[in-house]
Each structure stands twice: as structure tokens, then as C-alpha cells.
């Protein structure tokens, strides 16, 4: 695997959280993350029905509950900016729902890979944006992206499945590549559709943003982390 590219350091002097344009961008970002967490909860709870054993069902349901628990703090931060959290989430329901509609898992193993690889890629994208946020919001976003203990659970189950049926590895590798493509398409669409988010990434007079070189390094980091997750699962990226 290629040598890892370091994540960007937090911006030294981000725009104050009293700036109207900045507040709009952060409300957008937190709304997208919050709806993503709710969607992840719904999907994991649904995938739990495919679990082959009762312990697996409980483990996946526990993963779902962790996702839902993160929403309350995100909503509180949105309210601190004077916005309604449900209004903030509304613009992101269609693109996120469409992503999940296009990547509905066919079985238990595809659901596990999606929970680990697909959600991981989205989390990495939000961590990248977090470098441009005020410290309070940045810490909230980063803590919301923590994978917790469920990562080991997914890796163990997928690796065991491949040992039992080596053909599974090839199918799941293709699935992982599809998830990567769909997730990047969704991220680009969300950023393009929301002017405030685009401005947050692009920067302004008083704040650095992502130039073409920085953008290239960001996507290199996203790709490398995706490859690392696939390798952890025993899959070719």
C-alpha cells in the first residue's frame, strides 16, 4: 500500500462561529452528519435481520444504537447556532437515501462490508472538513466519527466468511469498489448542491481553503484509508 498521507492540521484561525456564512455552512454539515447517523441506524437495524446467529443479531443491533446515540449531541450543536435540526437535516435526506437505495446489500456479508467500508469513507470525508471548523464543532464532528468496537466485530466476521468460502472474497472486493464509487459521487453531489458547504471548503478572504493541490491530497488520503480498510477485511481494494 502507498505511504500514508498525513491528515490536514486544524486551521489555526477558523472563521468565528458568529459569522453568518460560516454558521450556515456548519448547520449544513451537522445536518448532513446527523441524517447520516439516523440513516445508518435504520440500515443496521434492518441488516440485523440477516444475521445468521442471535449473537450476531445483537451485535449489529448494538452498532445501530450507537449510531442513534450520536444524533442528540449533533442536534444540540445545531440548536446552538439558532437553527432547527430537522430543517437542517431535510436537504440531505434525498441524496443519502438514494445512496443507500443504490447500495442495498444482498446478504449479511455485503451489509457488514458496507457498515465498515462505506461508513468509514463517509466518516473520513467529514474528518477532512472538520479541519476547517471552530474547535467546539471540530471536536464534536471528530468524536461522532469514532468507529468504536464494532470495527473488530465486522473484520472478524468477514475474514471468517472468506476462510469458509474463498469465493466470497472476490465478490466482496467488487462490492467494496462499488461502495467507494457511490460514496464519492454522493459526497461530491452534496458539496456541489450546498453553496455554504462549497464555500467552507474553498475558503475565503480571511481563511484558507482547499486549493487543487490540497484537494488532490485529500482524495489521496481518502483512497488510502479505503484501501487500508479493505486490507483489514482481507479484500483487494
What does this structure look like?
The protein has 237 residues and is mainly α. It has one domain: Up-down Bundle (Ferritin), CATH 1.20.1260. Helices cover 73% and strands 0% of the residues. The chain has helices at residues 20-47, 54-69, 71-80, 85-89, 93-102, 108-130, 135-144, 150-164, 167-193, 195-202, 212-232. Helix 1 crosses helix 10 (195-202). 36% of the residues are buried. The model is unreliable at 1-5 (pLDDT under 50).
Report the CATH C-level class: Mainly Alpha
Q: What fraction of residues sit in β-strands?
A: under 5%
This entry's quaternary arrangement is: single chain
> What percent of the residues sit in helical stretches (DSSP H or I)?
over 70%
- From the spread of the alpha carbons, the general shape counts as globular
The residue-averaged pLDDT reads 83
Architecture in CATH? Up-down Bundle
Straight-line N-to-C gap? 10 Å
The low-confidence parts are 1-5
| Major beta-sheet overview | none
Number of strands: 0
Q: Supply the number of structural domains.
A: 1
Amino acid at each position: 500500500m502507498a505511504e500514508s498521507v498525513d491528515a490536514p492540521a486544524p486551521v489555526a484561525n477558523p472563521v468565528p462561529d458568529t459569522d453568518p456564512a460560516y454558521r450556515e455552512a456548519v448547520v449544513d454539515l451537522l445536518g448532513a452528519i446527523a441524517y447520516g447517523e439516523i440513516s445508518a441506524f435504520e440500515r443496521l437495524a434492518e441488516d440485523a435481520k440477516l444475521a445468521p446467529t442471535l449473537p450476531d443479531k445483537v451485535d449489529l443491533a448494538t452498532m445501530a444504537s450507537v449510531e442513534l446515540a450520536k444524533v442528540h449531541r449533533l442536534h444540540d450543536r445545531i440548536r446552538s447556532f439558532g437553527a432547527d435540526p430537522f430543517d437542517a437535516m431535510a436537504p440531505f435526506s434525498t441524496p443519502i437515501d438514494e445512496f443507500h437505495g443504490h447500495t442495498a446489500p444482498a446478504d449479511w456479508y455485503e451489509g457488514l462490508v458496507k457498515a465498515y467500508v462505506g461508513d468509514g469513507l463517509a466518516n473520513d470525508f467529514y474528518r477532512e472538513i472538520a479541519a476547517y471548523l471552530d474547535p467546539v464543532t471540530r471536536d464534536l464532528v471528530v468524536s461522532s466519527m469514532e468507529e468504536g468496537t464494532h470495527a473488530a466485530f465486522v473484520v472478524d466476521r468477514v475474514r471468517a466468511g472468506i476462510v469458509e468460502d474463498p469465493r466470497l472474497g472476490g465478490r466482496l472486493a467488487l462490492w467494496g469498489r462499488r461502495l467507494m464509487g457511490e460514496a464519492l459521487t454522493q459526497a461530491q453531489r452534496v458539496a456541489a448542491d450546498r453553496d455554504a458547504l462549497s464555500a467552507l471548503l474553498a475558503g475565503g478572504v480571511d481563511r484558507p481553503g482547499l486549493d487543487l493541490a490540497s484537494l488532490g491530497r485529500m482524495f489521496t488520503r481518502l483512497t488510502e484509508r479505503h484501501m487500508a480498510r479493505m486490507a483489514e477485511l482481507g479484500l483487494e481494494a
